[in-house]
Amino acid sequence: MSGTRGGMGAQALLEIQKLSKLFGGLAALKEVSFSVQEREIVSLIGPNGAGKTTLFNCITNTNPPTSGSVRFLGEELTGLAPHKVARKGVARTFQHIRIFGRMSVLDNVRVGNDHLGRTGILSALLRPPWVRREEQDNTEKCMSVLSLFGERLLPRVNQYAHMLSYANRRRLEMARALVSEPKLLLLDEPTAGMNPRETQEVVDLIKLIRDRGHTVLVIEHKMKVVMTVSDRIVVLDHGEKIAEGTPSEIAKNEQVIQAYMGGGRGRAETH
Amino acid sequence: MIFEQLVNGLTQGAVYALLALGFTMIFGTLRMVTFAHGEVYMMGAYVGFEVIRLLSPNFFLALAAALAATAFLGIVIEILAFHFLRDAPHSTSLLVTIGVSILLVNAAQFLWGPETQSLPHALLDRMDYGEVELAGVYITYFQVLVMAVTVALMLGLYFLINKTRLGMVIRATAQDYEAAYAMGVNVNLVFMAAFAIGSMLGGVAGVLVGVYYNLFYPTMGGLYGLKAFSAAVVGGLASLPGAVVSGLLIGIVETFTVELGTSSLRHMVSFILMILILIFRPGGLFRGKELIRVRGD
Amino acid sequence: MGRQLRILIVNSPYLAILCVLLMVPELVKNPYLLQVMTFIGIYVILALSLNLLNGYLGLLSIGHAAFYGIGAYTSAKLVMEAGVAFPLGMLGAGAVSSLFGYLIAKPTLGLSGIYMTLATLGFNMVLFLVLQNWMSFTNGPLGIMNIPAPVILGWSVESRTDYYYLMLLLVVLTVFSMHRLINSRFGRALVAVRENELAAEAMGVHTTRYKVQAFVVSTFYAGVAGSFYAHFVKFISPDSFYINESFVLLAMLALGGQGNLIGPVVGAASLVLIPEVFRFLQEYRMFVYGGILIVMMLFRRQGILGGRDYSLRLPWFQEGPKVVYLRRDKFLPEEETPSGES
What we know:
The complex is a heterotrimer of chains A (271), B (297) and C (342).
Chain A lengths: L13 E10 L2 E11 L4 E5 L6 H9 L6 E6 L2 E2 L5 H6 L2 E3 L12 H8 L8 H6 L2 H19 L18 H13 L5 E5 L7 H16 L3 E5 L3 H7 L2 E6 L2 E6 L1 H6 L1 H8 L10
Parallel strand pairs in A: 3-8, 3-9, 6-7, 7-8
Antiparallel strand pairs in A: 1-2, 1-4, 4-5, 9-10
Chain B lengths: L1 H29 L6 H19 L3 H24 L7 H23 L8 H7 L3 E4 L2 E4 H23 L1 H11 L1 H6 L4 H27 L6 H16 L4 H21 L5 H15 L17
Antiparallel strand pairs in B: 1-2
Chain C lengths: L1 H9 L1 H16 L3 H26 L8 H17 L4 H23 L4 H21 L1 H4 L12 E2 L2 E2 L3 H23 L2 H18 L4 H27 L9 H14 L6 H15 L7 H15 L43
Antiparallel strand pairs in C: 1-2
Helix pairs in contact in C: 2-8, 3-8, 3-10, 3-11, 3-12, 4-5, 4-6, 4-10, 5-10, 9-10, 11-12, 11-13
């Protein structure tokens, strides 16, 4: 059932063409182009300030690009409002965690499903049976997604999210992004601040997500994670794409090694 | 006829400009709105009122007293609403300024009564130095006074901001208070100074309006305060020249509106202008460098 | 069925409170006190409606009295001049208020916080000026007198007790409907926007549409409260809807807390009762309100009961949601305490 990854003739899930982003005079992204195929796990790496999160912001139009094109399943995403991008099936997490602090864990995840809901003001007031059913289904879905994280979040479903530990907040963000079953999942440093065991859990989770049919684009700093989880890697430096390929190809790429080692711009963590 | 109205409009506009300048001074430095600005203006007017009434019908004495009083008041407000709430969300400080505004209005009602007061004409006459004729129009002394004081203050402010060390420190803090702090600037004092200066400008406007119209009432800051906000928004919330231009503009347009229709419509001018600006040119007429993004957050 | 019974038992504390409130006119014979309680009811509705915008959505709307006034004038004119029956007049008041809420919300909600706030203040001011100067329509500062008492399907509301019961009905409807709205997709979206608008948008929440909806709903309640007020005191004038009134509402939310359904009730009740209990404060009411704003913001900015949810529901018979586990593998051994937990 799965198409060949990167195979010829298969339409790419995500196609980024000559994407550029200028902040004043500063070019954060310079004509970056690459594609992501269905059911691929692609890692986006590069030294600090390379423009990785900026790229995510351009895809979701949280901070729209200056020029270039982002095509998702053949449709142009640039110019769409962020909530419309989400409705197309693109979900994301954030580098600096953005959970809804004064809301329960369960409600946080429920919001991930907002655009799939149909309850409006009138229906909320009258509460006919279909509304109750929608709420129940939503709750069950959220609990299922939370169960992916074992017993980390389930015992805490009714706690306010700001009481969660750092690692749990990252997990919560992932759950929130997953609940709407997005075709494309953008993860921004999902293992930041986690110890090796927690990191491995996330790696296994990403693979599980892919096996269930989702496509993942990950920004990561931990090289071990990148090497083990990725089907392909895209490397950015100073806003430009300097390399693209399989993990073994990238490991041997001179330019990539230079970008990380030379210039002292920021070294990748190696655990 | 037109020239006469122009003079009236400029006089009125000068006051608006002063008020808006004071407000912009505060916003530009602290990045915070103060809803008590109209009440500071009102207090300045009453201080001037009392000085003229009780001490001596000397306009400049009244002005000096108002300057001192409103500077002090400004510092108190800064301490209450901003100094202790640096890490709080902005809405918290705004609500404190609203509370201060309520207190000031009611304090004025308590001290001077809710009715409108006026200076006895005898006193006013002793401050009046007649009229001047220019191109067939009589310009009163008070009109000249208002415009002269306003121009003087604007020049003084310009000089202060651009040519003195204090001004430089204020500008640095306005651009980036954390960087200024890192460079050794006592940011707390700068904020207080900016608030004091802004409040003083409001206080002067109060004395000018009070003497010019000879009407003093506790709620005089309400409508005027809002017009100051509108003028500041139209000019660009952190732009000093913008405040001046839009203040004068509103004053002139208001005066000519009276010519055209009902006088009660003129109060809407500033709000309509503000709404238009917010819809079509959200940064204000003078989109400066130190602006907060108006669209979105 | 079992489910209905369970709901009844779980919510019994609230039903108990309702019973007490229903018996108040029997227990309290003093008509003046009944009148005070009716006023509390008006402000409870107003405070709850503003709470929707400031507490749940996280805006700072400071001109809410405008919608209160629109409701009052609309209801008075509909009943007195268009001969509309009171219930329709009240609904009309709510509808017209929310129409204005919509007209204000649409252009201003795309603007960042402070501009939105200034716009609400400006609107309050403009409305006041319109009410004061449009003599032919509103009778200006003279106001509208002799507003008739409510007549609902033949029931003439006359005594203080009648008004009290009508107000109690309105309050119950308000609280109940708000509870339903808050605990729905709509309510969650509002809080999400308040907590992190960027993330909410990225999750597919249509933030602008929800904000406008919140405004429409909130101003509807304010309009209804205005309608009741008009037919209760039987005389309305622009002075009652000046920005002072908006500030009183802000003080109520500041004192009682916002962001849940109990804070505004406590705040409204307190600020109506305090000048009644402490008679000498009557003249200095506004001092009290201003002082409360300052003191609360400096010392407890979330208000007495803000900051978290409170519930009087009994915890019995509460079933947790069913969990369908998505994975059976055991790489998260359950015995071991995961590291990094708080």
